[in-house]
Structures are given as structure tokens and as C-alpha cells.
Amino acid sequence: MRYDIAIIGAGPAGLSAALNSKVRNKSVIIFGTDSKKITQTRSIRNYLGFGEISGKDLNENFKKSLAGYPIERSSKRVKTVYAMGKYFALEIENEDMMIEASSVIIATGIELARDLENEEKFFARGVNYCATCDAALYRGKKVVIIGYNQESIEDANFTSEIVEKVTFVNMTKKEVKLNDSIEVIEGEIPLGFEGENHADKLIFKSGKEIEADGFFIIKDSSKPERLIPSIKLDGNHILVNRDLETSIKGLFAAGDITGKPYQIAKAVGEGQIAGLNAASYLSSL
């Protein structure tokens, strides 16, 4: 199935883009879950019209604004977005078929944490970001999962059923429930990877080392250049013009991923602009 607009990210920018795209009668699918940055914020005082409100309540109000509109939702992770000329193909975790869309809006937020040492060097050469996508490549081998979120716990349990051994580096800051066969490393801070042409060792700040055939880094967002090959960046952000068009025709971006300020009001406004301009772009095809 091909949608008019696929939106990657379900925070304020993504929801605003979805609402404004749907108002223009476009078929829309949103990938993502509630933004933890908002839902875990106790008090928001600078969002016009609401006075003081909790992030959780504000997020619920955002979602209520979409009620009644036939907008498809998916919590599955988009692994890669491929520009195919007049449409885009979205590779989805654990799915054989790609999702197609005539236009895409990136509203993923931004990952501000630094890469581990040699993470970029060994990307796709022992360092991976989607266990459900790539675990089968390590069947019968040893794998380390550096987990920062709930998804990483689920991925570790899934991966342990495929590979010979899983070691889980717990970065979630909470107790985790894992299959008995999984070794858990607590209280260690990973620094980076070592190897020749392929990552084969993870180094910790304490000096501890662990060898494996593959490594998975599972966190809430990934760098835009890994999501969209050949996208032009401005530092850590996606480069956009005033219409929130990126360097790839038909692809738009909104919210924190386009740059500072990292504010809800800015994200909502950019989501509106991206949604309306994506709809206008489709009308010109």
C-alpha cells in the first residue's frame, strides 16, 4: 500500500504534521510512540493557552485533536528511508514488505548523546541498530546489546532465541527482566569499539573489555544520516529551508531534528508547516 504522507515520529511535530496533512484529505501513517521528553515533563509553563500543564496532559490533548480523523498509527521502527524518485520506500523492522509513501516528514527529535568511539567507523561492520532486523546475521554467534530503553529489553529476549549468547549492557537505569540465558552487565559505562575491519571488542570506562561477533546499540532515536542515506545536514540537524523542505525532493523535516530551540511550541508550528507543504507538494505531482 502507498500512503500520501508517512510521518516518522509521534511527538508534537509529528502529530501536528499528521493533523494538518489529514485536514488536506491526505492518507497518513505515523510511525512512533509517545514522546518521553514530553510525557515525563512534570510542568510546562510556556505553551500558549494552557498556563501550567503537565507534559502528560498536554500530550493527551494533542492526541485528542487527532481523534475522529482516520490516521493510521504504527509503533514499529523505521529502519531506513529510500528515495525512489516520485515516491519513498520505508524499510520497517521485522517486516519483509516495505511501506511506500509519496512524501515523508521526519519528526524524530534529536539524539544529543555522542557516539561511542569508532561507532561510525564500524557501522554495518559489527555495529548495528536494529536487532529484530539483523539478529539473524549472527545466528550461532555471540552478541552484545547496549540497551537504553524498553525496546532494547524486548530485543535482547528476542535475540537470545536466535544467537548462541547475548550479553546485555544495562543502560536503562532500572532493573530489567531478561531470559535466564542472557548475561547482564550493570554499572559499566561503554566507551567504544575496537577491531580491524570489523568491531570485535567493546571497551568500558573501567577498563573492562568484552569480545563478541556483533554489537547492537538500541536507543530511542538514531542519527538522521543513518535513517535517510544522502540527506544533507547542518551539524547534527537536517538542513531545511523556510518551507521545511530537505535536500531530497518530497521529504520534509520538523521539530528538534531541524535545530534549536528544542521547544514544544516550535515543534508544533513546524509540524503544521511541514504537513501543509507536504500536502501542497503532492498536489503538484
Overview of the structural elements:
The protein has about 280 residues and is α/β, with parallel strands linked by helices. It is about 25% helix and about 25% strand. The chain is built from 7 helices and 17 strands. It has helices at about 10-25, 35-40, 55-65, 130-135, 150-160, 225, 265-285; strands spanning about 1-10, 30, 70-75, 80-85, 90, 100-105, 125-130, 140-145, 165-170, 185, 190-195, 200-205, 210, 215-220, 235, 235-240, 250-255. Strands 1, 2, 3, 4, 5, 6 and 17 form a 7-stranded mixed sheet that branches. It has a 5-stranded parallel sheet with strand order 7-14-8-9-10, covered by helices on one side. Strand 12 (about 200-205) and strand 13 (about 210) form a beta hairpin. It is globular. The mean pLDDT is about 95.
What are the key terms here?
285 residues, alpha/beta, five-stranded parallel β-sheet, 17 strands
Question: Topology, please?
Answer:
Blueprint: E1 2-8, H1 12-23, E2 28-31, H2 36-39, H3 55-66, E3 72-74, E4 78-83, E5 88-92, E6 99-106, E7 127-128, H4 131-134, E8 142-147, H5 150-160, E9 165-170, E10 183-185, E11 190-195, E12 199-204, E13 209-211, E14 214-218, H6 224-227, E15 233-234, E16 237-238, E17 251-253, H7 264-283
Parallel strand pairs: 1-2, 1-6, 2-3, 6-17, 7-14, 8-9, 8-14, 9-10
Antiparallel strand pairs: 4-5, 5-6, 11-12, 12-13, 15-16
Helix pairs in contact: 1-3, 1-7
